[in-house]
User: Fold this.
Amino acid sequence: MLPWLAWLGILGVFVALRARGVGHLLMWDEAMDLASVRAWVTSSRDAFSNAFWAHPPLFPLLLARLAPLRTGFAERAEGLSIAVQAVNLFLLFVLNRRLFGSAIALLACAALAGLPGAVFFDAWIKRDHLVVTFGLLALLALDRRRGLMAGILLGFALLAKESALFYLAAVLVLVPLAFKRGERVKNAAAILATAAATSVWWYVLFSTFSGTYLRFALGRDPGLSGWNQPWTYYLERTWLDVGPVALAVLAAGLGTWVVARWRASRSASHATLSRNPQGSGFGVQFSIFNLQYSTSWPWALLIPAYLYLGLARGKAPWLTMCLYPAWATLIGLAAHELLAAISRFQLPVFGRATAKKNGGGVLLSVPPPRCCCWRSSYRPRFVTFQAISPGSGSASSGAPRHPARRR
Assistant:
């Protein structure tokens, strides 16, 4: 119950920060979307009605339910944008709580609530908001090993806007980690087929703007040449999208992990060599966390997206809107790592290994380094170095019952 109460507090801050954007001066795309919805409702045939079909229709269909012919339509549309993003905050909490636990999920939601780019863009009338909704739902479906459902949800995301391709790429990257070897190709094909069956019909039959996207990406449309930017454009904008405070937390959390890993590996090697200075007579077995699909999703979303955005010539400032949940998750993981290091809570003292004689071998229980791409747990987990006596052919049968203790 307490995590949900904390989430409600974060939601209050989330809405309060974005409510200031209601009534903002509309940019051209927003005004065109509102005008196209009014044209569609009145069955008009003009330049505005053509714009209705420039992008997929899910978000405009929701806008059409907000009395577009009455005064205050723009403010109601901005309120809908904030409401959809509040749903996305809920989905982010559910996803990260399932993968990392309540503490990291709350830290990620708090990061998203204060992310400068999200605060600025969440009140905009943009179709990308629904992309995040269906993209997060697809990740939840993948976490439950439901490939067909993930494909259908990705299809709905593609019916929200073309930027859903980022989430499609992320899901395909995660498929090899989510399924067993014999099931990977089958599930990847099922995801692609269902996503295409759900959405391609609209692009083939109704889209009036599809060819322009390719020209925009390649920078070959003279009318859109003003959007051409160097490949570093979005990397430079990270300072504005994520903010200096969040970047500092991210850097500090990653630095904490690097130092902890270095100290742990150095301590383990020292303890091993102290038992066998010549480096002979003992073989070492090393086991560590495997990279999990569920805890890799922020990287799977960000890396392909930024690769594409860097290569594309045409660059609009809002194309990174749907990537903010991944940034917030990484910041939440880094903040948890940093807080754990400061308070020594759930973070054993690195560099202290406990050696126990066990038969003819030595067991070293060493606290593991934890990285932002690995599963975080509230139970301490430990890397085990198990020494093998020469000629035995196998590890000693015993195992440490207790982790390394603080001294």
